[in-house]
């Protein structure tokens, strides 16, 4: 984990989206040119040794960080989208939410079998979406080489769950509590 001044650029909004939650808002980081480029540089450096063919950016903030990491590492960007957002044939995985289910999808032809893929998103909390993304990539025949996140909320256990599923996880910042 690399803090390097980035933590001060993350705004905490108490009680959003419901009482008791401490929402970690990265929009303030995105507004800071040095913070944005620094976070992408640090994430790219942390993931470079994985030598990915593709970066899988999870909708929507993962597209921002994933694009920068893909450019820095010289590989393509694979979009992981919410259901019904992609035209054409898709592969998808349903996964559990706190109350109900959701679905992520990718184009069926977007990931060649055997491709080394690294998952990128802004934050990992419970890990549900990231774990579903790893499952989706493996369903497509990819090798999930690792995952990178700007923020980890370790008390919610998502990074630990992803590691338990055989995925190397890199994060830049940790915030205790929810």
Keywords:
AMP binding, Rossmann fold, 178 residues, globular, 7-stranded mixed beta sheet, two-stranded antiparallel sheet, alpha/beta, 5 helices
Structure description:
There is one protein chain. The chain has 178 residues and is an alpha/beta fold. The protein has one domain (39-174): Rossmann fold (3-Layer(aba) Sandwich). The chain contains 5 helices and 9 strands, in the order ββααβαββββαβαβ. Strands 5-6-4-3-7-8-9 form a 7-stranded mixed beta sheet, sandwiched between helices. Strands 1-2 form a two-stranded antiparallel ribbon. The longest helix has 15 residues, at 33-47. The chain is globular and about 40 Å long. The two termini are 18 Å apart. It is an enzyme of class 2 (transferase). Belongs to the purine/pyrimidine phosphoribosyltransferase family. Pathway: Purine metabolism; AMP biosynthesis via salvage pathway; AMP from adenine: step 1/1.
Q: What is the topology?
A:
Blueprint: E1 11-14, E2 22-25, H1 27-30, H2 33-47, E3 54-58, H3 61-73, E4 76-82, E5 90-97, E6 100-107, E7 116-124, H4 128-139, E8 143-152, H5 158-164, E9 169-174
Parallel strand pairs: 3-4, 3-7, 7-8, 8-9
Antiparallel strand pairs: 1-2, 4-6, 5-6
Helix pairs in contact: 2-3
Function: Catalyzes a salvage reaction resulting in the formation of AMP, that is energically less costly than de novo synthesis.
Keywords: Cytoplasm, Glycosyltransferase, Purine salvage, Transferase
Organism: Glacieibacterium frigidum
